[in-house]
Design goal:
single chain, alpha/beta, two-stranded antiparallel ribbon, about 35% helix, elongated
């Protein structure tokens, strides 16, 4: 019985491995802002204020928060989960609130957030310091992090927000290309 089961399990394992490789190969890096909508919007001097106001309309307590934008059916959300968890822990360590916003439903925030997973850092005074992807690269891992320096307290001497729109990685675009 065991001798007949082993080849079947080996075939199932090989087929699963082949499927995973083919899926990963078809899921090539995507642009975070494929239509350059965020890029164009962020050039406005009032972008920081408008973005924070849009977040406020969602009834979110913003001051001192790290806002995590996500999608339920986004494979890249799963790929980046360990990095997202490490960002959440860093935010807690730096005494920020973590707020999760799922963008599967229609929302005015989709005009600002071109892809998920994405993150925004709002300082204790309610000002935007960072908005964009967690990281770049196909697997969006912790070593490629873009957001971490903006969560650390020593980065708050900056004048204005950093908005990253020109990045490639594993992102689920919310707008059609």
């Amino acid at each position: 019985m065991k001798s007949k089961l082993l080849p079947i399990l080996l075939i199932i394992w090989a087929a699963g491995l082949l499927f995973a490789v083919l899926y990963a190969a078809s899921n090539k890096p995507k642009y975070f802002d494929p239509q350059n909508v965020l890029h164009q919007s962020a050039m406005s001097l009032s972008f920081d204020t408008e973005f924070v106001e849009a977040l406020s309309k969602e009834k979110l307590g913003l001051a001192g928060s790290v806002i995590h934008f996500q999608g339920r059916d986004c494979f890249c959300q799963t790929v980046a989960q360990s990095h997202i968890s490490s960002v959440e822990k860093l935010a807690e360590k730096q005494q920020f609130n973590n707020i999760n916003v799922t963008l599967d439903e229609p929302s005015s925030l989709k005009t600002y957030v071109p892809s998920v997973p994405a993150v925004a850092v709002i300082d204790m005074e309610g000002k935007l310091h960072y908005f964009g992807p967690y990281s770049s690269g196909m697997f969006c891992t912790e070593g490629d992090g873009l957001v971490e320096p903006f969560i650390k307290k020593d980065q708050f001497a900056r004048a204005g927000a950093t908005v990253i729109s020109q990045s490639q990685g594993c992102y689920c675009n919310l707008t059609s290309v």
